[in-house]
Amino acid sequence: MMKVETKPLSRDECKALARLTLAARKGTPLETGRSFEETVASIEKLSANKDFQILIAQDEQGAIVGWTYDYIAFPLMTFISGFFPLVDPTREPAEIALAIIEAEKRKIGEYGDTRLEIELVFPTKTHRDFSEPFVGWYQKCGFKFAAEEAHMKTDLKTTELPELDLPRNCTLRRFSEFSFEQLEVPGFQVFENSSDDLFLSSSRDEQRVTLEHFFDKSKPLIEEASLVLEEAGKITGFVITKKEGEEVEIGPIGVIPEARGKGLGSYLLVTALRKIKESGISTVSLDMSIANHPARRLYQRYGFKEVHHKQFYYWSP
Question: Whose CA is closest to 242, among 179, 284, 184, 199?
Fold first, then answer.
């Protein structure tokens, strides 16, 4: 009988996971050329990080035949990133994968979480094709499709940014001047009336957690490019720019429904991009739902091009 559990991993167990990982990815789009020792070190680092948990599947003889890991830093929600579970290619992959996914579902129920979500990134069509058995496993375990997003980038060295005047009766202030309580209601208004399928697939409590993440001031921000637009003292739009390592990412960005159609979204985006460019940064990225056609046209106008797509699936108890 197969056993799936979460526990601190020994170095020998990390080595076993590394061997399984290299074997499972050999000859696939996920093969990286990473050495055995590099793979072991990566798994040891993952195992030591309290924000992540590793689940391992063992057969009756105690041999490790599959594994996955999740990210548990958000309240209510647990995340799986990438093409997991990884299973021993000499065994029956579906049986092992389904056992691991079902164990993951039981685990988040024990923690009181309300959403288990997996993200699959497709740098190429080959990756999308390769995802089919993984998607099949998750759907067989009751997961639903949530959204497909495009990851887009622009090079500000080659992008012409127009001079836009501050819209009439509007005031532009820094995001850091506002509390979450001030931003929560307009945040809900923006995303409840949007094409953001990932947000809309979440429960109200999960949406609030998402907004807390969006408006988190503890993350490295580019202050000059993180802005809130007010009209007659009321928040009508916002744009937030974060720095993740060497990457600069815009998001969230949005305008409340009653203020749309006035060019406020363009103004916020162009103003943020100009501030980013003035700071000496040229490459900027963002993610958008592929269902959001107006946003896609806006971003393309300022040089954003699709780099890759990603899909999200989720399960709720």
Answer: 284
